[in-house]
Amino acid sequence: MSGQLDSIEVPEWKVKGKPAKLFFKPSLNFHQQERILALSDKDKKGEAIIEALIQRALDEDGNRMFRSTDRTELMRHVDPDVISRVVGAMSGEDIDSEEIEKN
Fold it and tell me: What is the widest separation between alpha-carbon atoms in the chain?
């Protein structure tokens, strides 16, 4: 599943004074989809959105930016509107940030 990476700039997240740039593959593999859908099916939509970010966000070399151990930090300390916008841009959908706040 190699190939070209898409990217999104996140002005709210700064790296050396510049907006962070997250890279991602245009599509998910089955394993990634399964992890995200398992949470969504359990009515944990906020956690599913966080899992999508964890699974998809890459650096410019294609390495994952977040690990599963970052989940709690992302859920408690990162603006859900920003996460929703980023994950929505990665998936080509609008995601309701209220889902993150509820979970």
Answer: 39
Continuous segment of H or E residues that includes residue 19? strand 18-24
The H or E element that residue 54 is part of is: helix 45-56
Q: Would you say 29 and 96 are in contact if contact means Cβ atoms under 8 Å apart?
A: no
42 burial (CB, 10 Å; 0-12 / 13-18 / 19+) is: exposed
Amino acid at 34: E
Residue with tokens 């004074």: 17
Cα–Cα distance for residue pair 101/61, rounded to 1 Å: 31
Sign, CA torsion 85/88/93/94? negative
What is the reported pTM? Answer: 0.80
> CA distances (Å), 4 to each of 8, 32, 62, in order?
14, 18, 10
Is residue 6 a contact partner of residue 23, using CB atoms and an 8 Å limit?
Answer: yes
- Structure confidence by residue, pLDDT tens digits, 16-58: 999 999 999 988 888 888 888 888 878 788 899 999 999 999 9
